[in-house]
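Colleagues,

Please find the record for the two-part complex below.
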Amino acid sequence: MEEIKNKLEKILLKANKPARYIGGEIGSVVKDREKVDVRFAFCFPDTYDVGMSHLGMKILYGLKNQVPNWWCERVFMPEKDFEMLMRENDIPLYGLESLDPIKDFDFIGFTLQYELSYNNVLQMLDLAGLPVLAKERTSLTPLVVGGGPCVCNPEPMTDFFDLFILGEGEEVNLELLRLYEKMKPSCPTKEEFLREAAKIEGIYVPRFYDVDYNEDGTVKSITPNVPETPARVRKRVIADFDKVYYPDSFVVPFSEIVHDRSVVEVLRGCIRGCRFCQAGFIYRPFREKNIDTIKNETKSLCEQTGYEEVSLSSLSTSDHTKINELLTSLSEYTDGEKVNLALPSLRLDSFNEELLERIQAVRKSGLTFAPEAGTQRLRDVINKNITEEEIMSTCKMAFEWGYTQVKLYFMMGQPTETDDDIRGIAELSDKILQLYFETPMEKRGRSVQIAVSTATFVPKPFTPFEFEPQATEEQIHHKQEVLKSAVRSKKIRLSLHYSNTSVLEAVLARGDRRVGKAIYSAWKKGCYMDSWDEHFQFDKWLEAFAETGIDTAFYANRTRSYDEVAPWSHLDYLVSHEFLVRENKKAHLAQTTRNCKEGCSGCGVRPECGGVYCGRQKTST
Amino acid sequence: MADKRLQPKNVNLRPDRFERRVVYEKCGRAKYISHLDLMRAMQRAIKRSKLPIWYTQGFNPRIYIMFPLTLSLGFESKVEVMDIALLEDIDFDEVVKALDAQMPEGMKIVSCGIPVHSHTEITYAEYSIRMVTDRSSEETMGLFEDFLSKDKIEIEKRSKKKTVNIVDIRPSLDVKEMSADTDGFRLSIRLPAGGNFNLNANVVAETFLGMYGLNNEEICIERTKILLADGEDFC
């Protein structure tokens, strides 16, 4: 530690925002390394500013550090300037709490939140002084483990990891570390430990599965090669969500991070089932916390951190069964403490005047909506169950309250999309604009701006669109031209994103184990920090794909049949294959599916998982 | 306390505002906290301390907090000052205790009192500098003596209007002590500080290093005093 600390002293002032690399923040947990038996490096494969905003890390950091003889530390990807300084001065990647090199830790855990961070995992392992390939790390430690939403299809990353943790981590992380603590004194081999770990529900050890391929390149079969491991690994889910561990303090950073505030998780899962949305399926079932629990957690966090803002986190906050009561109760506390209450993730159709008034009271920003598609037909296809009337009535209300900025998010390249659907984006924006002009002068704000953003649709595993092709670059460019020529008013500002990153995302999201060779090759060519425009090198990626024989169109732009063996078919995320097929067929008929609150649609999630609406049908009939 | 809404908006008319001047240390890991980050960190520390803090009375109430003299990123100091205001007349010791409990590693609350001098009265600051260059400590000191023997040392200084002025800093260098030790060349120096003319110790060091083409291997700067025009301590 002293060695790294002394070296850091000499280089920190040469780096941009050095406070990110030295730890010492309020709320960070420092233990006596002599009294610790299990050391865990929690790595977020992106910069400090991004990673420190991530709620999952805060939860699992607090959870592990509750155990007196375990020590979990934070590790982030340094910016390139600091990475160079580290390499020049032989400083290996270290934990922010102890400043010890992470290569000596028992576990190195990565959270895989988005595909474009994959190569940072390799870069961080390398910076730690470790071989990136799992097969070259033969000793028991460090065990390199991965979790997060992307591990619902971790196949492209299997070459680099020892095991993956599927689903929610609050219970399984403890089970895994307890097993390790128990086995460590007997000095098992890595293989021996992994065989025991594979028996824990939710632990997926990729080396214990063999993958065979068909002649056409699709997966033929995925079969276990040791007796300890199940044919399908099921994700973990917290059944009693109200009682789940939640940290009572956060690490409060010095330098400003992306989401610099207290965050309280109010619910998990989503009742909606928008067909493009992976989070809406892999986090099922819908569970929520009681108002008292949320209030206590809010109070405790605000007191511990001193943050001036608290935000409610969820996929759709307004779906909390007692949302109005919750907000009333919370704002009593936050107003008294001069704390801002931020409410992201509010759904358009749930907006009522009372909610709007509450937001008005605490925050006077613009409104942001995501209709996702321009026509009702396409919204039905994607099961985004909002009608145009609902959009209009909300915007009308917003304009009457004096809001002058409306941001609208759309996706391009969704299944069955036509040019009419694209022109629909312009027509919808135009109608919203007209609403502003119809609002009485004395009520409306002085000017108006409608900001329309489009992103390219990326089909994801465990959604009804996992079978769908992604639109090609040419198709997206055509759609963008259609939209540009359809927008006439200067009050409507278009930002059309097309980036080759969405091709890469599509390949990585639905790739199989062979894609790992391309990741390795691209990393060797210097590709990492791919989510940062200034660092993304698509040409190098294309070279890597070509050299490793990976056809991007095969992964991104091909329609997959319902009976094709998906690379992730040995992983069980509770939502059934039959349900996804049923939903896909309905999408092509532009038929919507009711949400969980309106009635069960039989997605396959069992009632024992604790879903608020699961199994309700049986009891009521 | 009376209903706050009935109190006058003009802060000077408000009787229930108790000003406190707090002296604190910023050393070790904390020297990497930038000034902007420090302001945020202090606001959060005050909030955690649960002291009855006075908020500004504007449209967006904020914790009232003032720093008379910024400390550059990377400098250490045991004499830093910040002013806050409380709603109740709380004992100095109690303020020190409550705030100190909330300080991050490397920071410590030293004392608390009532502000005597205004921020504009700050005229000088003293720094203790230790530098290791690619020459020996003795050689470095010899070169610094040569540096001081110049009639004029001109630097470019950006004014607030973004124009660049040429300023002679030689008259502003008031060296108190110099020595060449095994761990580097040590210098104790008094420089102008505050709103009128502020000279950053780093600028002096860089100008010196640049003039003789020295490579800076390590440089540690600590602010040791904040002074009034007559040389008395600011607080």
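The helical segments of chain B are 35-49, 92-100, 137-148, 201-211.

Comments are welcome before we finalize the supplementary table.
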